[in-house]
Specification:
This protein is mostly helical and 151 residues long. Helix content is 83%, strand content 0%.
Length: 151
Amino acid sequence: MLVWQEDLDTGIDVIDGQHRRIVEMINQLEAARLSASQVAIVEVLDELVDYTLSHFAFEEALMEQAGYPFCAAHRRVHEIFGKRVQDYRLRFEAGEDILDELRTMLARWLFNHIRGDDKAYSDTVKRHLNDFARHHEQGGWLKRTVQRLFH
C-alpha cells in the first residue's frame, strides 16, 4: 500500500487533498486486485481515471488563473499521462493482467509528478490564491466602493 509522505505536500490544501484521494484510490485498486473481484477492479479503475482527469482539469485551471508560465507544458504532461492510463485501461478490458504494472506506474508517476511538476507551480498558485483571498477579505470592489461613498 502507498503511504503519503509529507514531502508530497504542495502547500495548497485543495490540491494536497486531491492528491491524497488519488493515493487512496491507488490503494483501493490494490485491494480490489487482491479480492480478485473484476467488478470492484473496474469500478475503482473507472473512478480513479475519472477523478484524476477532473483533478488535472482543476489543477490546470488554477495554474492558468495564476498566470503560471509553464501551464501549457504541464497540461501536455497531463495529456500524455492520460493517454498512457487509457492504454492500460484498454489492455485490461482486453483481458490482460496489467494491475501490478499499472499500480507501479501510477505510484512512481504520481509521486515524481507531485515532487517535480506540481511543486514547480505551487509558489505561483499560492501567491495567486493569497492575493485573491486578501482581495475578497476586504470585500471586493463593491464593498470598497460602498464604504468610500457612504463612510
